[in-house]
Design brief:
Blueprint: E1 3-4, H1 7-14, H2 21-29, E2 35-38, H3 41-53, H4 55-66, E3 71-73, H5 77-89, H6 95-106, E4 111-113, H7 117-120, E5 132-134
Parallel strand pairs: 1-2, 2-3, 4-5
Helix pairs in contact: 1-2, 1-3, 3-4, 5-6
Length: 135
């Protein structure tokens, strides 16, 4: 089953000084499954990477997508609807997190790779009691 990466993981992989960097690199290197993210994560991660690490780091992110090292999942109409529903039910989560959850539910994933325990822990997905949060 492919592994869905949230913004924090994408950012931590790029920033060697991030507290999560070593853990995320080890986690992703140890995976046998392909990794992917949502189309909504990319602008958020690209902004953070460019703002904090510079344009070359941002270009590296986009190159990794162009080279198919990181796949990107579009949102379906149902994902947009579910994201809006999740934002109403869980007022602390924003659109990007809600869209990641919606895609994870649609694909019936058991876990999400994220550094954001605060926003993802309270979520009760439709298809299981909770998501496993990795790493």
């Amino acid at each position: 089953m492919p592994v869905l990466l949230d913004t924090g993981i994408v950012y931590a992989l790029a920033d060697r000084d991030d507290d999560w960097h070593d853990r995320c690199v080890a986690y992703v290197r140890g995976l046998r499954e392909p990794v992917f993210t949502t189309v909504t994560v990319i602008p958020e991660a690209a902004y953070l990477i460019r703002d904090r690490l510079g344009r070359r780091a941002e270009q590296s992110l986009i190159r990794s997508i162009a080279d198919r090292e990181l796949d990107v999942e579009d949102l379906s109409d149902a994902d947009w609807e579910r994201a809006a529903e999740l934002m109403g039910k869980y007022p602390d989560i924003g659109f990007v997190d809600a869209s990641v959850i919606a895609v994870a539910e649609r694909l019936r994933l058991s876990s999400i790779a994220t550094t954001d325990r605060r926003h993802f822990t309270p979520i009760k997905p439709r298809h299981r009691p909770s998501f496993g949060l990795k790493p």
